[in-house]
Design a protein that fits this description.
233 residues, single chain, 27% strand, 30% helix
Length: 233
């Protein structure tokens, strides 16, 4: 690829309210976990992160969506152009696992048919209500590409989930023209731009830049903003 461009992959994170989507994204983008984080995502927020996976430099745009029902119709439009979707449930909340089929139905309606699907059982540090074998069965029955049990608190498998997703996106770009055409894959990089590079413990990935704060998008109306419930999502 040209030195003046780099791949840009859009990832979207969905799942029921309170499964830890925002904490999952924050752990990956900033290596942080805020105990008792209770502010609900209102609409959609996103963070950017520059990474190197298998010697390829990539910009990730990670879209963190609200789990509340009133935002569902708005969120559908954000599947457009997404290369991968992380579908989260909490291993300590049985109802969040049972609602996965609803999220899949929405995904099938709104996303490209070749979007890479990653099933994530979050909160693996807590007491289990959903068995791993159940999730693996659900994964296989619904054509997910990957499955991870993660902890946004300890960081277990969080980085691995994103790294493996990037690898799959790159692979699919080379094997499917329709997939490649369905995602926005390239952005310009100024020739004189400077970036600080820090190396991660895993040689397959180097973090070059991450956003310090998510960017909150405008929601349906101000009234919904003011009345959104302050619960973890």
């Amino acid at each position: 690829m040209s030195k003046e461009s780099l791949p840009m992959f859009k990832f979207i994170v969905v799942g029921d309210q309170s499964v830890g989507k925002s904490s999952f994204v924050k752990q990956y983008s900033e290596s942080q976990f805020i105990e008792g984080m209770s502010k609900a995502t209102v609409g959609v927020e996103f963070v950017k992160k520059l990474v190197i996976v298998d010697k390829r430099r990539v910009e990730l745009q990670i879209w963190d969506t609200a789990g509340q029902e009133q935002f569902r119709s708005m969120i559908k439009s954000f599947y457009r152009g997404a290369a991968a979707v992380f579908v989260l449930y909490s291993i300590n909340q049985r109802d969040s696992f049972e609602k996965l089929q609803d999220w899949l139905s929405e995904l099938h309606e709104s996303a490209h048919e070749e979007i890479i699907k990653i099933l994530v059982g979050n909160k693996s540090d807590m007491e289990r209500c959903v068995q791993k074998e159940e999730a693996e069965k659900f994964m296989n029955a619904n054509n997910f590409s990957l499955f991870f049990e993660t902890s946004a608190k300890t960081g277990e498998n969080v980085e691995k989930a994103f790294v493996e997703a990037v690898k799959l996106v790159i692979m699919r770009m080379f094997t499917s023209e329709s997939f490649k055409n369905s995602i926005k894959t390239t952005k310009k990089t100024p020739a004189n731009s400077k970036q600080n590079t820090s190396r991660s413990d895993q040689p397959i990935q180097e973090v070059t830049q991450s956003s310090s704060k998510p960017i909150q998008l405008q929601t349906q109306n101000n009234q919904e903003n003011n009345h959104a419930k302050k619960q973890c999502c």
